[in-house]
């Protein structure tokens, strides 16, 4: 833990490194009005996200991604604006800021990659093992 805090202090007080990491994060230009927000608290809701990002322009969507099993936030969200200019203002204004006690990072959202279609039972390769699909206890 002490090593980590010392390392963070070194990065924070080294102007060359600090400006290098900041420039990497801010150099990518926005091509769509959709933003990816990471580093969210597990307690952040859609309403809190909307409240934090609404001063930068007209929001079309603010959605915290929820885990299906636990019903809690996965720690990231997507925010969409009406125009790319509003999204750029929000990115500059909210990147590396505190929201619900956590530092959040705002980056351009990447397009979703298509998933391969699920394989049917007959298309799965045979490995030599068979699965017993009997339901209940026999015997």
Description:
Helix content is 31%, strand content 23%. The protein starts with a helix and ends in a 31-residue tail after the last strand. The protein is elongated, with a radius of gyration of 22 Å. A 5-stranded antiparallel β-sheet has the order 2-3-1-5-4, with helices on one face. The protein contains 4 helices and 5 strands, in the order ααβαββαββ. The chain has a domain at 38-109: Alpha-Beta Plaits. Strand 2 and strand 3 form a beta hairpin. Mean pLDDT is 81; it is low at 16-25. The protein is α+β, with helices and mostly antiparallel strands and 139 residues long. Pfam families: RRM_1. Keywords: RNA-binding. Residues 109-131 are annotated as: Disordered.
Write the layout of secondary structure elements.
Elements: H1 2-12, H2 15-27, E1 34-38, H3 46-53, E2 59-66, E3 73-81, H4 84-94, E4 97-99, E5 102-108
Antiparallel strand pairs: 1-3, 1-5, 2-3, 4-5
Domain RRM: 33-111
InterPro entries: Nucleotide-bd_a/b_plait_sf, RBD_domain_sf, RRM_dom
GO molecular function: RNA binding
Observed structural traits:
139 residues; alpha+beta; elongated; five-stranded antiparallel β-sheet; single chain; Alpha-Beta Plaits; 4 helices
CATH class of the domain at 38-109: Alpha Beta
Structural class: alpha+beta
Q: From the alpha carbons, calculate the radius of gyration and give it in angstroms.
A: 22 Å
Strand count:
5
Mean pLDDT: 81
Q: How helical, in percent, are the residues?
A: 25-40%
* String of helices and strands: HHEHEEHEE
Main β-sheet description:
5 strands, antiparallel
CATH architecture title of the domain at 38-109: 2-Layer Sandwich
What is the 3D shape?
elongated
CATH topology of the domain at 38-109: Alpha-Beta Plaits
| Strands ordered across the widest β-sheet | 2-3-1-5-4
Low-confidence runs: 16-25
Number of helices: 4
- CATH homologous superfamily annotation of the domain at 38-109: RRM (RNA recognition motif) domain
Distance between the termini: 56 Å
Beta-strand percentage range: 15-25%
């Amino acid at each position: 833990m002490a090593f980590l805090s010392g390392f963070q202090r070194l990065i924070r007080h080294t102007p060359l490194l600090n400006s290098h990491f900041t420039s990497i994060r801010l150099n990518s230009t926005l091509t769509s009005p959709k933003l990816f927000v990471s580093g969210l608290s597990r307690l952040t809701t859609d309403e809190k996200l909307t409240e934090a990002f609404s001063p930068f322009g007209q929001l079309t969507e603010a959605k915290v991604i929820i885990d299906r099993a636990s019903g809690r936030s996965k720690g990231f969200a997507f925010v969409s604006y009406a125009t790319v200019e509003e999204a750029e203002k929000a990115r500059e204004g909210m990147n590396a800021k505190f929201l619900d006690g956590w530092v959040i990072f705002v980056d351009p959202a990447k397009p979703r990659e298509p998933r391969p279609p699920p394989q049917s039972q007959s298309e799965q390769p045979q490995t030599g093992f068979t699965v017993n699909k009997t339901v209940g206890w026999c015997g």
